[in-house]
Amino acid sequence: MVEPVTTILTGIALVQKSVDFVKSNIDTINDIKSITSLVEDAIAGEQQIQKERFQSKSIIGQTKSAAETVIDAKLAQEQLAELQILIDNRFGFGTYRQIVKLRNDRIKEEKERQAEQARVTRQKRQQTIDNLQTIGIGLAIALALGVGLLVLMTTRAR
User: What is the mean pLDDT of residues 53-62?
Assistant: First the structure.
């Protein structure tokens, strides 16, 4: 398991790396596809920071204080805002929001696909259990009939 401080540092590094690359290359970028992964990395980094910030209930024993955690989260948000401005200025107003919306839609579709796959798996497992129960009941009935016939035949043979 990754330590909270390490996760936050990784998140900050991811946001900074993505924003710095876009800043230095914004004029040479001709296609939004070439920076989509950087925007996704920056958003993922910021989400890592937020998740760690709100997930860890106790900061006892951690090397970072609560103030540092909040400041790191704010810095990441500022860098995302700067990234939004850079992209919107280069490709037109609303481009960044379109990227974020597309990303969120893809994440939602993936979660729905995973949920559907889990549902199908549960359904197949239940069908297998039902089939095994039916076979078991059939075998039990056949065994009972066989024992009954055997008892009937041995009593008649006497």
Answer: 61
Query: Chain-centre distance of CA 6, in angstroms?
Result: 20
- Indicate whether 150 belongs to any domain: no
Q: How far is the C-alpha of 18 from the C-alpha of 83, rounded, in Å?
A: 9
Domain that holds residue 26: 4-93
Distances in whole angstroms, Cα of residue 114 to Cα of each of 43, 47, 61, 77: 22, 21, 37, 30
Count up the domains in the chain and report the number. 1
Give the SS3 label for residue 31: coil
Q: How far is CA 48 from the centre of its chain?
A: 12
Residue 29 lies in a domain: yes
Residue appearing with tokens 């009972």: 144
Contacts of 90 (CB under 8 A, 6+ apart): 26, 27, 29
In percent, how much of the chain has pLDDT > 70? 88
- Percent helix, percent strand, percent coil in the chain, to nearest 5: 85, 0, 15
Angle between helices 33-55 and 95-157 (to 10 degrees): 70
